[in-house]
Amino acid sequence: MGKTIWHCHIAISLDGKIARADGSFDWLEPYPPQEFGIDAFMEKVDAILMGRDTYDVVRGFGEWPHPGKPTIVMTNRPLDDAPPGVEVRSGDVAAVAGELEARGYGLVWVEGGGRVIRDMIVAGKLDVFEMAVLPIVLGEGIPLFPPGTPELKLELAMCERRSGGALHVVYRRA
Q1: Hey, is 118 helix, strand or coil?
Q2: Which residues of the chain have pLDDT under 50?
């Protein structure tokens, strides 16, 4: 059993927001996720870890976009009509991460939101940040790194220009 890689693949505004204040992300529409390697990335993903707000947004798309991928949702509230393979966990994210490591997952996508990402950084479990950095300043919005996020040193692994002035950036834990 190899080491689990905890990988955050996410789109952000230039001012570090992952959604508008109301949770919407219409500003992402001009930037196809395929330009940022999402399809190849998803082929490698063994499991997904996400927060409840992220789950609710993804679930709102209609058909579940992650069939066959075990998905763990961090929440204190029950999920009504959760798709097959979706599990609920609450409490300590580090303990949940330990469970997933014990299952032998090689690559876990830390899909979001900010609180789960922050808690994974606190637990020392976030290895890679892969980001679509989009040339828009939202001003108000939901930050990628909410208050309480500790310092984390990273090193640049890749940076490529994409259409519309966007960047595809990969950072690894230093």
Answers
A1: helix
A2: none
For residue 76, what is the domain's CATH number?
Answer: 3.40.430.10
Assess contact for 69 and 85: CB atoms under 8 A. yes
- Give the count of alpha carbons within 13 A of 68, CB side only: 4
Q: Which of 48, 16, 35, 45 is nearest to 114 (CA)?
A: 16
- The structure tokens listed for 66 are 């992650």
Beta bridge partners of 131: 10, 169
At 13 the three-state DSSP class reads strand
> What's the domain range around 52?
5-129+136-173
* pLDDT at residue 60, as a whole number: 86
- State the pLDDT at residue 1: 60
Beta-bridged to residue 12, according to DSSP, are 133
The reported pLDDT for the residue numbered 80 is 87
Which residues contact residue 21 at a Cβ distance below 8 angstroms, ignoring those fewer than 6 apart?
A: 140, 141, 142
164 in helix, strand or coil? helix
Structure tokens of 131?
């980001």
Q: How many structural domains comprise the chain?
A: 1
pLDDT of residue 34: 92
Report the SS3 class of residue 8: strand
Q: CA end-to-end span of the chain, whole Å? A: 23
pLDDT of residue 137: 98
